[in-house]
Amino acid sequence: MTAPRGTDRNRRLRSAARLYAVQALFQMEAAGATVDQVRTEFETWRIGAQDPETGQIAPEANLKLFRSVIEAAVNWQARIDQMTDRALVQKWPIARIDPTLRALFRAAGAELLDTDTPPRVVINEYLDVAKAFFPEGTGARLVNAVLDHMAREARPEAF
Of 61, 107, 114, 141, which one is least surrounded by beta carbons within 10 A? Predict the structure, then answer.
């Protein structure tokens, strides 16, 4: 039996949305930009846009998921950060970790709290994002452990 048409494309669009969401959340923190400013910038100049210097076209993304993740991450940030703190080693509160990891945990936490995506899918998807930013593997192990803890806290019924 074959997969329904569009399934692979839909997966790619959702994966790209997650990657863009992490980048957008990172940019919001680094530049002090609002969710509306960053959303507009990404949707106008980044997602699916052509790089004027290289001519390369950035991947398309599921805009509904992109918007949902960044807005939920902002709306639930305090709760997500508390969940992340509980999952991290006591001497490493979220304020001390790499800002890319903070953005990743916030995006994943938003999906865990605000969507019906199965927690194991969320964990696997954000592990792939972590590997894009931290190819050496140590970041991915930390991400896996933290997201597993966060998922069990946010959605214990799924385990």
Answer: 141
pLDDT tens figures, 54-76: 999 999 999 999 999 999 999 99
- Alpha-carbon dihedral angle through residues 151, 96, 141, 73, given to the nearest 10 degrees: 40
**Rounded distance, CA 82 to CA 30, Å?**
20
pLDDT tens digits, residue range 77-121? 999 999 999 998 766 777 788 999 999 999 999 999 999 999 999
Q: Which domains does the chain have, with CATH numbers?
A: 7-158 (1.10.940.10)
DSSP for 94-124 reads GGGS-HHHHHHHHHHHHHHHH--S-HHHHHH
pTM: 0.91
Q: How far apart are CA 74 and CA 134, in angstroms?
A: 24
